[in-house]
Write a structure and sequence with these properties.
Elements lengths: L2 E4 L4 E7 L18 E8 L5 E7 L8 E6 L3 E8 L4 E7 L5 E7 L6 H7 L13 E3 L13 H19 L21 H22 L4 H23 L18 H19 L16 H4 L2 H20 L27 H11 L10 H4 L10 H23 L4 H23 L17 H24 L9 H4 L2 H11 L16 H23 L7
Antiparallel strand pairs: 1-2, 1-9, 2-3, 3-6, 4-5, 4-7, 7-8
Helix pairs in contact: 2-3, 2-12, 2-14, 2-15, 3-5, 3-10, 4-5, 5-10, 7-10, 10-12, 11-12, 14-15
Length: 538
C-alpha cells in the first residue's frame, strides 16, 4: 500500500516492494532473508530527507537513522519484519518532521509481511505539507481547503457587484446607518477569511521550520504593499492619474485589510501554537482550542475594552458622551456635527478632510461632516472580526479529520455570537445597547457577522471539503486571485466593457444588467487566469 506526504513543490512517498525469487528478480537488488523486506523511498521534494526508525519493542529507545534520500532521488534499504517499527521522516536541513510512519506487524511468510505492511501518516499539515491517506476511494484528498477559496471568492464577487451599484436597489447596497443590508456583509466575511487563512498558512510555515524573523519580514512586506496599493488605487482619478489630490482619501478598504492582517499575523507569530496537544483527562478539554491561546485572547479582550472605553467614555466637543448616531437631522437635529461620535471625531482629528466624503448616511440624514467607514476606531473591531476567523482556523487544525466535530464547533460559535449580538442590539435596529452598525463596526455588528461567518463557512465546508458535492465554481476562481480582481475592478470598473453610458435611467433594469455584466466579466477573467495558472501573490 502506498502513502504520500505532500509538500509545496512535490511529495515524499514510501512503498514496500514485493520481490519474487527466480529469473524475473532484479539482479541489482540484494537477496532477502527470512523476516526481511526491501523498503524503497521515492523523494520528490527539493530538499534532502532522512528516515529514522524505532522498534516498538525497544522501550524508550532513541530513533536510529535508516536512510537518507537526496532531492529528486530514490533510496532502498532492507528492514526486519520481526517486530513492529515506527518511522519518521525529517528534513535534513531543519530537522522538521514531515510525518510519522507505522509498519504494522503481519503474520505468515516474508512475502505476506511485505505485501501487507501498512505505512500511515499520523500528522497532517493543512497547507504546504500534507500527509494524506488514500482511503476507500484510493484517491488522496487535496491539502488546500476549497471552502476557504470559495467563501473568499463569494465575498469578493458580492463586493464587486455592490461596488458597481448593486442594480441601484437599496437592500443590495449599504444601510444608511444602523441595521444590515447585503452590502454590509461582504467586508466582514472577507476579514473573517483572512484570519482563518493566517492560522492555516502560518501553522504550515512553522512546521516547515520558517523562522520568526522570516515570518516578520514576510508580514511587513505584504502589509506595506497592500497599504500602498490601497492608497494609490483608492485615490486613482482618470484626470489626475494614480494619485488624485482632488479627492484624496487616506483610510480605505485595502489599508484596513493590511493593518488587520498585520496584527493577526503578529498574534499567530508570537503566540500561536505549532501543535495543539490532545489532553485526555482535563475538565477544560471542550474549550482546549481556546485556553491554549490565552495570550491571544487576552490581547483581543484588551483591544475590545479599549474600543468600548473610547466609544462610550471619551468626551467629544458639542456632542453627548457615548453618542453612536449619524448626526445631521437625526435625533431631532440636536447633534448635526456629531456624525459617528468618538469614531468620527478621532478620524477628523487625524485625517482632516482627507477621508470619505460621501458616507451612506449623507443622503438620508443630511449630514455635513465627512465620515469614513474604514476609520481608526473601527479597525480595532476589524481585528476582533479577523480573530474570530482565526478561531475557525484553529478548529480545523485541532479537529483535523473530525468533520462532525468541526461543524458542531462552528454551530456552537455561531449560536453564542448570535445570542450575544441579539442581546446587545435588543433585536432592534436602533433601540439596542449597541446597535448593529457597519459604519462604526460596532461590537454587535462584529458578533452578528461572526455568527453569519461561522454558519456560512461551515455550510461551504460541508458541501465542498466534506461531501465533495460542489467544487466551489465559479466563486473559487476570484477567490484564488482576490487581490487582482479587487484592484482591477477598482481601476477599470467605470470603463467599457465593464460599464457604459446608460440610456434608460428611469428604472433599475439597465443598471442591474450593467452591474451583473461587469461582475460576471471579472469572474470570467479570474477563470481564464486560473486556466493559465496565473495567481497574483504578494
Amino acid at each position: 500500500m502506498l502513502e504520500e506526504c505532500g509538500h509545496a513543490q512535490g511529495r515524499f512517498s514510501s512503498s514496500s516492494s514485493l520481490l519474487h525469487r527466480g529469473k524475473s528478480a532484479v539482479a541489482a537488488r540484494p537477496p532477502l532473508k527470512m523476516d526481511q523486506a526491501l523498503l524503497t523511498f521515492h523523494n520528490h521534494l527539493i530538499e534532502e530527507v532522512q528516515v529514522f526508525y524505532q522498534s516498538d519493542h525497544c522501550y524508550k529507545c532513541v530513533h536510529q537513522l535508516l536512510a537518507s534520500v537526496k532531492p529528486k532521488n530514490n533510496a532502498s534499504t532492507i528492514i526486519s519484519t520481526k517486530f513492529t517499527l515506527s518511522m519518521q521522516v525529517e528534513l535534513r536541513t531543519t530537522n522538521a518532521t514531515l510525518c510519522r510512519l507505522t509498519d504494522r506487524e503481519s503474520q505468515g511468510s516474508p512475502e505476506a509481511s511485505e505485501a501487507d505492511s501498512l505505512f500511515r501518516c499520523s500528522e497532517m499539515t493543512i497547507a504546504a505539507h500534507a500527509c494524506e491517506t488514500a482511503h476507500n476511494s484510493g484517491k488522496a484528498k487535496p491539502s488546500r481547503l476549497l471552502s476557504l477559496d470559495t467563501f473568499r471568492g463569494f465575498s469578493l464577487t458580492v463586493m464587486v457587484f455592490v461596488n458597481y451599484g448593486g442594480g441601484g436597489y437599496w437592500f443590495l447596497q449599504h444601510a444608511p446607518w444602523n441595521g444590515l443590508a447585503v452590502g454590509d456583509l461582504v467586508m466582514p466575511w472577507f476579514v473573517f477569511i483572512i484570519g482563518t487563512s493566517v492560522v492555516l498558512a502560518f501553522s504550515s510555515m512553522q512546521r516547515r521550520g520558517v523562522t520568526r524573523l522570516q515570518l516578520l519580514r514576510k508580514i511587513t512586506w505584504r502589509t506595506v504593499v497592500l497599504m500602498i496599493l490601497g492608497f494609490c488605487f483608492l485615490n486613482y482619478s482618470p484626470r489626475d492619474g494614480p494619485l488624485s489630490l482632488s479627492w484624496l482619501r487616506i483610510p480605505g478598504v485595502l489599508q484596513r485589510l493590511a493593518f488587520t492582517y498585520f496584527v493577526l499575523s503578529l498574534l499567530q507569530t508570537f503566540w500561536g501554537q505549532k501543535e495543539i496537544p490532545l489532553s485526555a483527562d482535563h475538565w477544560w478539554n471542550p474549550a482546549q482550542d481556546v485556553i491554549l491561546y490565552w495570550p491571544q485572547w487576552l490581547i483581543i479582550v484588551l483591544l475590545e475594552t479599549l474600543w468600548l472605553c473610547i466609544t462610550f467614555l471619551m468626551p467629544v466637543p458639542n456632542c453627548p458622551t457615548g453618542y453612536l448616531g449619524a448626526g445631521g437631522i437625526g435625533d431631532g437635529g440636536l447633534y448635526p456635527n456629531c456624525t459617528g461620535g468618538a469614531a468620527g471625531h478621532i478620524d477628523r482629528w487625524i485625517f482632516g478632510d482627507n477621508m470619505y466624503r460621501y458616507p451612506s448616511c449623507k443622503e438620508l440624514y443630511k449630514t455635513v461632516q465627512p465620515f469614513d467607514p474604514e476609520g481608526v476606531l473601527g479597525t480595532i473591531n476589524s481585528i476582533v472580526m479577523g480573530f474570530l476567523g482565526m478561531q475557525a482556523g484553529k478548529i480545523i487544525l485541532f479537529y483535523k479529520r473530525k468533520n462532525i466535530h468541526i461543524l458542531c464547533r462552528y454551530l456552537v460559535w455561531a449560536v453564542i455570537l448570535g445570542i450575544s449580538a441579539a442581546i446587545l442590539s435588543k433585536c432592534t435596529r436602533d433601540g439596542g445597547f449597541i446597535p448593529v452598525n457597519k459604519n462604526l463596526w460596532s461590537l454587535s455588528f462584529v458578533l452578528c457577522m461572526g455568527s453569519f461567518s461561522f454558519l456560512l463557512l461551515g455550510g461551504v465546508y460541508f458541501v465542498t471539503d466534506m461531501k465533495g458535492w460542489w467544487g466551489g465554481q465559479p466563486f473559487i476562481y476570484p477567490g484564488m486571485n482576490s487581490i487582482f480582481v479587487y484592484v482591477g475592478h477598482s481601476i477599470l470598473g467605470f470603463y467599457f466593457p465593464f460599464s457604459w453610458e446608460m440610456r434608460f435611467q428611469e428604472n433599475h433594469w439597465e443598471l442591474l444588467l450593467q452591474n451583473l455584466w461587469g461582475t460576471g466579466l471579472w469572474v470570467l477573467i479570474a477563470y481564464l487566469l486560473y486556466r493559465k495558472k496565473f495567481f497574483l501573490k504578494i
